[in-house]
C-alpha cells in the first residue's frame, strides 16, 4: 500500500490585463487511486509597489523564479513593458 502526494497545476488564467491566477491541486494517491485533493490559488501581478514619505513610488518586478516553468512562460508572455507600465500607472492612481 503506497501513498503518494502530487502537486499539479490545474489552471492558469490571465484576468484583466495583468493578473495571472494559478490554481494548484495537491492530490493524495493510494495504490493508484486518488483518495484526497485540495486546491491552493495564488495571484501574480507584474510588480509590488510602495510609496515613501517623499511621495516617491518604488516598483519592484515580481520574482517568478520559483514558479513552475509554464507559469513563468505565461507571465513573461503577458507582462510586456507596456502592461507593466500600465499596471504601475493603475497602482499609482488608486491611492486613497
Question: How would you describe what is shown here?
Answer:
The chain has 96 residues and is of the alpha+beta class. 24% of the residues lie in helices and 49% in strands. It has helices spanning 69-78, 81-93, and strands at residues 3-15, 19-30, 33-44, 47-51, 57-61. The strands form 2 sheets. Strands 1-2-3 form a 3-stranded antiparallel beta sheet. A two-stranded antiparallel ribbon has the order 4-5. A hairpin with a 2-residue loop joins strand 2 and strand 3 (33-44). The longest helix has 13 residues, at 81-93. The protein is elongated and about 60 Å long. It starts with a strand and ends with a helix.
Number of strands: 5
Unreliably modeled segments? none
Instruction: Walk across the major sheet and give the strand order.
Output: 1-2-3
Radius of gyration: 18 Å
What general form does the structure show? elongated
| Structure class | alpha+beta
Chain-averaged pLDDT:
94
Major sheet: 3 strands, antiparallel
Terminal CA distance reads 57 Å
Q: What's this entry about, in short?
A:
With 96 residues, the chain is an alpha+beta fold. It is built from 2 helices and 5 strands.
Labels describing this entry:
alpha+beta; 96 residues; 3-stranded antiparallel β-sheet; two-stranded antiparallel sheet; single chain; 24% helix; elongated; 2 helices
Amino acid at each position: 500500500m503506497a501513498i503518494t502526494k502530487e502537486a499539479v497545476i490545474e489552471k492558469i488564467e490571465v484576468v484583466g490585463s495583468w493578473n495571472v491566477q494559478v490554481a494548484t491541486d495537491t492530490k493524495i494517491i493510494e495504490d493508484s487511486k486518488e483518495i484526497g485533493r485540495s486546491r491552493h490559488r495564488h495571484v501574480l501581478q507584474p510588480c509590488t509597489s510602495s510609496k515613501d514619505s517623499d511621495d516617491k513610488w518604488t516598483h519592484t518586478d515580481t520574482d517568478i523564479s520559483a514558479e513552475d516553468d509554464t507559469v513563468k512562460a505565461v507571465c513573461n508572455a503577458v507582462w510586456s513593458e507596456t502592461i507593466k507600465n500600465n499596471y504601475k500607472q493603475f497602482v499609482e492612481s488608486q491611492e486613497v
